[in-house]
Every structure is written in structure tokens, then in C-alpha cells.
TrEMBL record, chain A:
The chain crosses the membrane at residues 20-39, 51-79, 111-134, 140-165, 172-197, 255-275. GO terms for cellular component: plasma membrane. This is ABC transporter permease. The keyword Cell wall biogenesis/degradation does not apply. GO terms for molecular function: ABC-type transporter activity. Keywords: Membrane, Transmembrane, Transmembrane helix.
UniProtKB/TrEMBL annotation, chain B:
Residues 4-229 form the ABC transporter domain. Keywords: ATP-binding, Nucleotide-binding, Transport. PANTHER family: ABC TRANSPORTER, ATP-BINDING PROTEIN. The keyword Hydrolase does not apply. The keyword GTP-binding does not apply. Belongs to the ABC transporter superfamily. This is ABC transporter ATP-binding protein.
Length: 280, 320
């Protein structure tokens, strides 16, 4: 397995890019701004007492959007860009399997995204802990770990998409298309699915599977997973996933963890299948 | 021991046939020149050896491993200078070579390899700022990492000035002396002629010749020409030259004798003239170049620089 060499190369390449430093600065400002806003303005804490847990869920609700957009920007060229430019020939002249290349890319780009992200959130939370002083530090640590996993999942999705095509134009279209359909417009998609499945009319009550459909977008699954990992904190700050109205065994916040794991595996596997058979 | 073996390899891109039923054997330890005009299928062949593309038909074996199913094993023993590559603009020369060394799980010092290709002084500059020739040297250094058993070099002298091309040939020879097999493609014939043990000529996706350069010459009956200037040229000198085995014709033009002959009989002719009492003032010799062979094999007039002098060297014209 030579993916370590690929990941190291990919990371040191990105570290020398100005945009990574701009991204880090942006994340830090965002995190500090959100922490400040949460601790200063009552209406942002939704009427509950300001606690670390409250800050965690406040940040969690916003981080999903930024991680999805930045991972598309950082990763859409990961494979397609190397194929388009011709550096893929340099890379694959060395004894890397195409699986090594994909795994190395996912690891390297996760580091590129997660290092500034975790540093920025860690900084924001540390200041929050000092300023607010109430609530468990453990919830902050769990939040950071779960957010790191979410960044890994999103990178894996976009690298998987990038492995499907040989031009950056197509890869960008796939990444943006994914964001629009699976994140931005998903409520509409879910609604259409419900409408069609019910024989082109609206049911009086949504069926149980509808809850699973609403959890498909990775950022929704991320938020539900956070609720599942920090149930007491979630209850205290009134963070909910919409699972309450359904009574099937799978209509629980934990479904978010399962769905995020599927997002980690499925797109990259499809990407690998296509990439491993492609002519460079 | 066979380094590269292609059996009936074909590659079809849609309706375009890039390679047609190519059989090729490269022995371990030899320097093999892979020739052909641009678009003949040289890069496609190399891409198949490295599993960049998959053959439509046939099989390729490199260093005893199947090129498709055991590609990582092939590439771990092979150093490659690919065609149409791009370097990582933001990484330094040293980082590129270190990446190759790490990937090969080797332990050399990147600076030694950069020094060998003559760009050690640029080791810490970003490769994005390198000239084309420096980039080519950098990728050669990457190819040399891990003392590969086989070097596959696709158009290695691209972007190199004459001095750089000479250094490239020197490195190729050093690698061959170390015991490595060298397989390189080129459309620049002089360079192939200078260092290859054997050559293969590819044209329109088909291998049209595979032989040593002298073997190719012999099979194509392309002769050499010897021009001798004598103090006292006469008919006797003409018949003395014609009596030597290997001479096909000798014509006198004033004090000069133009003799068409095989390469090996040149010395014999000079010795015979001397024996017969002719005193040699000067002589020049002209061999049919690989250009001529190439044109004969691929059926197209190759050289854009075919001068009148070259045309005069063609055996048929000697008879005038």
C-alpha cells in the first residue's frame, strides 16, 4: 500500500497553495464570529440558556453547509484534474494501484479540509468555554470528532465523483449538480418522491420511509448523527431531527450515522469501479 | 530472460485502430529503440505496458509480470519517463524526486539523483517554474529512483538542447551498463542510431521491422559509398576496386573514384588500391543513414532536411 506517499504528496502540494491559507483564515473568522454571536445575542441561542452544548448545536447547524461547499471546491479536481493535465501519468508511472491513488487522495484532501476546519472550530469552542463557562467539554470534543468524520465523508463523495470523469469541467458539473440536487433542492426532491409514491397525490400523513428520505443529504445526516451522539445536550437545547412524528424502528436520529457511513463507502466505490477500468 | 513481450496486441479507440496485432520482444539488458513517425502508436504501446490503457486484444508481459493484472509489480521495477505528462507546479524538484523514492520504497538521496541529471542547483525551486528541458531532466531523475530493472522512456530528448540530449544518452548508457534494460521511443533517428542495440519500427499501428541497425541495413540492401581521391587515377584503379569482394560499382570522375560497396569492404578497397601502387590523397565515406532506412520501411519520405548531398548518397544515384 503506497497511499501514504500519495496522501503526503497531495497534502504538501495543497499546503503551498494560497487558497488553503485563505480557507483557514475564513474558517477561523467564521468560527470566532459564530461563537461571539452565540454568546452575545440571546435570540441566537433560541431562548435556552447559553451553554457549550448549545454552542455545539449552533455551530453544527451551520458547519454542514460550509463543509459541503468547501469540499466541492477543494476536491472536484482531485482525479479529473490530474487526468486532464497529465500529472496522472506521472503519478501512475510510479507503483501506485488506482485504489492507492483514490485512498491517498481522500486522506490527503481530508487533511487539507479538516486541519483548518478543526483548528478553527477548536479555537471558537475554546473561547466559548472561557466566555460561557457552562456545559460539558466532552460534548465539544465529540462534536469535533464527528465534524472531522463528516469532512472525511464529504471529501470521499467528491473524490468519488471526480474519479468518474476525465475533464475538470465535467467534474465541476458533477460536484455542483450533486450539491444542488442532494443538498439544496432535496426537500423538493423528497416531496416529489412522496407525491409519486402515493399515486400522484399527497398523503394525509407522511409514511415512515419519508423520514429516511429526508436524512439522505449528508449535512442532514450529519446533524442527526450529532443529535444521536449527544442526546442529552440535544434535548436541553431543543435540537431535533424531525424523527418524533414517525414510529418505525429506523426513524431515529441514529439513522444519520448509518447514512453518513453509506456516503463514505458508496460514491467512492462507484468512482473506483469506473476509474479502475478507464484508459488514462 | 525477456524484459518486454507483446503478443498480438491490438488497441482500438472507437473506429480508430491505434495498434494492430503487434508482436515484440525486448531482451533483458538491451537498449531497444522504438521508432516511428508521430501518431504511429508508440505512446499507445507504452501506455499498454504501464496499464494506462488496456489492449483490445492480445497480452503484454513486462519483467515476467502481466502488464494488466500485475501492473503495480511491473511499475515497482520500472522507471518511466512518460509522454504528455505534467509536473506538480507547487512542489519543488526535490519533493518530486522524494515522492518517487517514497513510492518506490527506496532510500536514495533525492539530491544525488538531481545531481545526476544536472539540476541539483534548482532542487528547491518549484517545478512549475522549470523550463521544458529542466522538467524533462526532473522526470528522468524520478524515473531513475530505486535503481529500476527497466527504463521506459517516451521521447526522452523532447525539450532538450543538443547538450542535454547527449547527457541523456550518457545516462541511458550508464543505466544499461548497470544491467538495466532500456526501452525508449523516438522519432529522432540519429539518437536511436547512436545508442541502440536493436530497434523496432512502428508505422500506422503495425510493427514493420524489428532488428539490429546493421541487420536492417543488410536486409534493405542499402549500401555505403566510398569516395577516394588518387594522385594517379586511371582505369586500372577502377578495376582494382571492382575486384574487391563487396564492391558493386566503381566510377572514375577525374582524380576521384566513387565506389558503391558494403560497409565491411571499405578497408579492403583502400588496401587494394595501395597495393596496386595508387597513392591515396584523400577519402570520404558516406553511409546510408537511418533516415533512409526509415523512409524505406515506412514508405514515406521522412527527412525534412534531405539535402542534395544526401540524395547523391543514395546508391542508385552513384551509378550515374
Amino acid at each position: 500500500m503506497t497511499w501514504v506517499a500519495v496522501a503526503k504528496k497531495d497534502f504538501s502540494d495543497a499546503v503551498q497553495s494560497r487558497s488553503l491559507w485563505a480557507l483557514s483564515a475564513f474558517f477561523i473568522l467564521l468560527s470566532l464570529g459564530l461563537t461571539y454571536g452565540y454568546s452575545e445575542f440571546e435570540f441566537l441561542s433560541a431562548g435556552t440558556e447559553t451553554t457549550i452544548g448549545g454552542l455545539v448545536f449552533f455551530l453544527g447547524g451551520i458547519v454542514g453547509l460550509f463543509v459541503s461547499i468547501t469540499s466541492i471546491v477543494i476536491c472536484y479536481r482531485a482525479i479529473a484534474g490530474e487526468r486532464e493535465l497529465g500529472s496522472a501519468k506521472l503519478l501512475l508511472s510510479l507503483p501506485h494501484s488506482r485504489l492507492d491513488v483514490l485512498v491517498g487522495k481522500v486522506v490527503g484532501r481530508t487533511a487539507v479540509l479538516a486541519v483548518p476546519l478543526i483548528i478553527a472550530l477548536g479555537l471558537g469552542l475554546s473561547i466559548g468555554i472561557i466566555v460561557i463557562g457552562a456545559g460539558s467539554i466532552l460534548s465539544a470534543v465529540i462534536f469535533l470528532g464527528w465534524t472531522f468524520f463528516f469532512a472525511l465523508v464529504y471529501v470521499s463523495i467528491i473524490v468519488g465523483l471526480s474519479a468518474l470523469v476525465s475533464s475538470t469541467t465535467k467534474a465541476a458539473a458533477l460536484g455542483i449538480g450533486f450539491f444542488f440536487i442532494v443538498e439544496f433542492l432535496w426537500d423538493g426532491v423528497a416531496f416529489v418522491l412522496l407525491f409519486v409514491a402515493n399515486g400522484f397525490s399527497l398523503p394525509t400523513a407522511a409514511p415512515d420511509w419519508y423520514f429516511v428520505v429526508t436524512q439522505v443529504p449528508p449535512s442532514n445526516a450529519y446533524f442527526s448523527g450529532l443529535v444521536a451522539l449527544l442526546p442529552d445536550v440535544a434535548a436541553a437545547v431543543n435540537a431535533s431531527t424531525g424523527a418524533a412524528g414517525f414510529d418505525a424502528f429506523y426513524a431515529v436520529p441514529e439513522i444519520g450515522i448509518v447514512i453518513l457511513c453509506l456516503w463514505l463507502i458508496v460514491p467512492i466505490s462507484i468512482g473506483y469501479t469506473v476509474f479502475s477500468q478507464a484508459d488514462l | 530472460m525477456v524484459a518486454i513481450q507483446l503478443d498480438g496486441v491490438s488497441k482500438q479507440y472507437g473506429s480508430i485502430t491505434a495498434l494492430r496485432n503487434v508482436d515484440l520482444t525486448v531482451e533483458s539488458g538491451e537498449i531497444f529503440g522504438f521508432l516511428g513517425p508521430n501518431g504511429a502508436g508508440k505512446s499507445t504501446t507504452i501506455d499498454i505496458l504501464l496499464d494506462f490503457v488496456r489492449p483490445t486484444n492480445g497480452s503484454a508481459t513486462v519483467l515476467g509480470h502481466d502488464a494488466q493484472t500485475e501492473s503495480v509489480a511491473v511499475r515497482s521495477k520500472t522507471g518511466v519517463l512518460p509522454d504528455g505528462y505534467h509536473v506538480y507546479d507547487r512542489l519543488s524538484g526535490r519533493e518530486h524526486v522524494q515522492f518517487a523514492i517514497d513510492s518506490k520504497e527506496s532510500t536514495e538521496d533525492p539530491l544525488d539523483l538531481l545531481d545526476r541529471v544536472g539540476i541539483a542547483d534548482a532542487a528547491d525551486r518549484n517545478a512549475g517554474g522549470y523550463s521544458k528541458g529542466m522538467t524533462q531532466r526532473l522526470v528522468l531523475a524520478m524515473a531513475l529512483a530505486g535503481e529500476p530493472e527497466l527504463l521506459i522512456l517516451d521521447e526522452p530528448s523532447t525539450g532538450l538542447d543538443p547538450n542535454g540530449a547527449r547527457e541523456m544518452r550518457k545516462i541511458i548508457r550508464e543505466e544499461a551498463d548497470r544491467g538495466a534494460t532500456v526501452f525508449f521511443s523516438s522519432h529522432i533517428l540519429e539518437q536511436v542510431e547512436a545508442i541502440c542495440d536493436r530497434v523496432g519500427i512502428l508505422n500506422n499501428g503495425e510493427l514493420v521491422a524489428e532488428d539490429t541497425i546493421s541487420g536492417l541495413r543488410a536486409s534493405l540492401e542499402t549500401d555505403s559509398r566510398l569516395d577516394v581521391t588518387l594522385e594517379n587515377a586511371d582505369n586500372g584503379a577502377v578495376s582494382a576496386a571492382e575486384d574487391v569482394a563487396g564492391v558493386t560499382s566503381a566510377i572514375q570522375d577525374g582524380s576521384m573514384l566513387s565506389i558503391a560497396l558494403t560497409r565491411e569492404s571499405k578497408y579492403e578497397v583502400l588496401a587494394a588500391l595501395d597495393r596496386e601502387g595508387y597513392s591515396i590523397v584523400d577519402f570520404t565515406t558516406d553511409e546510408s543513414s537511418l533516415d533512409d532506412l526509415f523512409a524505406a520501411v515506412t514508405g514515406e519520405p521522412r527527412s525534412e532536411d534531405h539535402t542534395e548531398e544526401d540524395a547523391a548518397a543514395a546508391p542508385t544515384e552513384v551509378e550515374q
